[in-house]
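Encode chain A's predicted structure.
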Amino acid sequence: MESTHGGKTDLYPKDHPEESRIVSMLHAVTKSLRDGQESGQYMIVDANLLDQWPDVVCSLLGVVEKKGTDPSEEVRTIHGLSFPKDCSVNDAFATESVPKVRYESVSNCVDAGHIGRIRILKGDVKGAFRHLRTQENQVFHMADYIPKLGIVIIDMATPFGWSGSPPCYALFGRAISWLMASNSPATVSGSLDHESFSSYEWVDNQIFVEQDVDDHLELTEATLRHAMLTVLGPRSINESNFSGGKSKLVALGLSWNTVQ
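Encoded structure for chain A:
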């Protein structure tokens, strides 16, 4: 990958709407940046340093609202690595340098072949991409500039917005799924239930369609926590997004109903 542009000059066209959004959500944006800084994901420096770092590639920082949260308190920051068009970091990215990922059809969950009372359970990895660190000689491509704050944010992890993040993360998501599919209640407890846990992943989302018998659902969720812990460490577990076994659930943008 070669740098196609650097510095902060003319990064934001005059009156660009994204800059206005950042200003309107400044409290939530700075909170998100502080969290990233404290976790070691972001290195934040004075924008004047760009005069001494001409090779640093600054992209457009974007913000989107998170479902179910107050945008004045919490937002998702996205690196606009597809901006500017035709000379962005994503344009320069060599797609053949990362694994090719093939996701299974979600219909496989429906065709799992279970009988009896069925429940669906979901969980996802917290800050999935932040667990993967960018190679040190490539990190200068992953910068954002915020004129209002006069700062540059350099992402030390694979950022949300980079074309290579999903396929790189998929190796780890697939490892979690493999651990789940390789186990059953009998392998993780004293249970006599030898039926393997179902396993379906879509990027950082893990979906399970399981029989509701004995403690099968509880062991599914406990094993998923252990699998995430094994692959990505203790900070990967997103407790707020573990659903428990449900007959009705919204997951992957779909409404699931295991009764009807």
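The chain has a mean pLDDT of 87.
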